[in-house]
Amino acid sequence: MTPSTETLTAERILEATEEVLRRHGPAKATVVDVARALGVSHGSVYRHFRTKAALREAVTKRWLDRTSASLTGIAAEPRDPEARLRDWLAALFTAKRRKAGDDPELFATYLVLTGENVEAVGAHITDLTGQLTRIIRDGADTGAFTATDPATTARAVFHATARFHDPGYAQDWDQPDIEAQFEAVVDLVVRGLRA
Amino acid sequence: MTPSTETLTAERILEATEEVLRRHGPAKATVVDVARALGVSHGSVYRHFRTKAALREAVTKRWLDRTSASLTGIAAEPRDPEARLRDWLAALFTAKRRKAGDDPELFATYLVLTGENVEAVGAHITDLTGQLTRIIRDGADTGAFTATDPATTARAVFHATARFHDPGYAQDWDQPDIEAQFEAVVDLVVRGLRA
């Protein structure tokens, strides 16, 4: 257990919250549980997160942001938009599969939390489609893609590839030919952007 | 209630099973429940369906087949493959939305049943992607589409449009711009096929 004399930051509270979720599942992430895990008074947790709902939303957002952060770099790279799009979609799929596969119980716990925190999920999707919009706009600027409305096209690409990032499909991600399925959809989408 | 003197066909039993499901939810579709609803001995139901599992699988298959049957005609029409593909995808989306919207409780009940009957669902998906393969092969034959492997491409089209037929997305189907989302994905997919 982290000694309670360390400065109690929001990040430290969220780390402890994730540890509580990992050990005990979605029901146990309350301010009292987290304060107990940190060995601090619950008043000191309340100073950072005023309600149980705020704490749960923040830990959900932190979990979602870990995925987007790993993709931001790819979206911003100054190189061929088609290669960048393929790499970005592959990185998104890899990140989601890793989350689902490395710790299935924590993944299931976070699925409960995302169901409760639709605003955090909406912001996450806006962030991801914003990154896609940037790549598609760059492609339209160089003439690699024909999109006239990059934001609408980005959303269509996000929807068309849902099988490879929507957690609702996690049970299909260990199918033996899932990589071939992914490649077939990405090829179709990329050809659609080029045309 | 249907008089028990009528000939007891498999179809009559399945109709009664669906009625039992509609009234009482997924737990109640047992042979005994259905025999009671028909006013017949359960022995006479067992003559058609030897187990509760067989009865539940057959009623699930019947429900899924109602969707595919409405699409077979479109897949087989001797006309422009691109228009046929667009109409087929729109008809699939319409059929699924209608099922979800007209009777949400029965839809939820059938979702429980499809979860139990993965083989019936697999056969349904094989049927649908087979219809798509036919349209895409026709398009490749006329030169409208460039697909070299129509079956693989058909599966990619099915996956890319999952948001508009997978029952897991039913809660999104009354979003105000869902038609625009559908058009954007279908346009992207059709351009990908043409290229």
Features:
homodimer; 195 residues; mainly alpha; Arc Repressor Mutant, subunit A; Tetracycline Repressor, domain 2; 72% helix; elongated; Homeodomain-like_sf (chains A, B); transcription regulation (chains A, B); HTH-type_TetR-like_transc_reg (chains A, B)
List the topology elements.
The structure is a homodimer of 195-residue chains.
Chain A lengths: L9 H15 L6 H8 L3 H5 L5 H25 L4 H22 L1 H13 L1 H25 L7 H11 L17 H17 L1
Helix pairs in contact in A: 1-2, 1-4, 4-5, 4-6, 4-7, 5-6, 5-7, 7-8
What's the short version?
Chains A, B: Pfam families: TetR_C_27, TetR_N. By secondary structure, chain A is mainly α.
Explained architecture:
- The structure is a homodimer of 195-residue chains.
- Chain A has 195 residues and is mainly α.
- Chain A folds into two domains: 37 residues, Arc Repressor Mutant, subunit A, CATH 1.10.10; 138 residues, Tetracycline Repressor, domain 2 (Orthogonal Bundle), CATH 1.10.357.
- Chain A has nine helices and no strands.
- In chain A, helix 1 crosses helix 4 and helix 4 runs parallel beside helix 7.
- The longest helix of chain A has 25 residues.
- In chain A, 33% of the residues are buried.
- The mean pLDDT of chain A is 93.
- At the A-B interface, helix 8 and helix 9 of A face helix 8 and helix 9 of B.
